Amino acid sequence: MKHLLFLFLTISILFISCKKDKADPEPAPEKDRTELLTGSSWQIKHLNQAQSGQKFYYDRGGSNNTHDYAKDLLKFNTDGSGVYTSSTGVDYNFTWQFDNMEKTELSYTLAGYGSGTLIKLENILIDENNFRYSEMYMYDGFYSGGSIYRISKP
Question: Cα separation of 110 and 139, whole Å?
Fold first, then answer.
């Protein structure tokens, strides 16, 4: 009887120890900067900018804003096109491209906005929910620029 019990325990231990462990799921591959940029529409969370000699400040939900950028939205498409919705709700088409291999700089040209405004973005930091950069462009004969923090639009 002891041998039968010993044999049963030995077989049980072998059976349990030989069970195949469930494989951990493979982590999703990291998205590249193009996928991150084109995967969302981007609304302004925070803006600190100088344009044509004037200072502009905006913080979504804030009370000390100098301008309302609640409607301002950027949508980049994978084919190099995009749509900018201005703070007044007017849509402008644009073309864009990355300007370096690291994809930390890009430029886009707004069609129908003056004679076509070239906007340069540098120091781009991006993930699925956040898009931060410094911005430079010419407006009304003045160099303009600032620091922009955008979030993906829900």
Answer: 12
Residues in the chain: 154
10 Å Cβ neighbour count for 24?
Answer: 6
* Residue 7 binned pLDDT confidence (cut-offs 50, 70, 90): very low
In this structure, what are the phi and psi dihedrals at residue 141, rounded to the nearest 5 degrees?
A: 80, 0
Q: How distant is the alpha carbon of residue 45 from its chain centre?
A: 12
Separation of first and last alpha carbons in the chain:
69
Q: How far apart are the C-alpha atoms of 151 and 102, rounded to whole Å? A: 21
Q: What is the pTM of this model?
A: 0.78
Kindly state the tokens that stand for 142: 């003045």
Identify the structural domains of the chain with CATH numbers, from first to last.
Answer: 32-152 (2.40.128)
Quick one: which of 93, 149, 99 has its CA closest to 117?
93
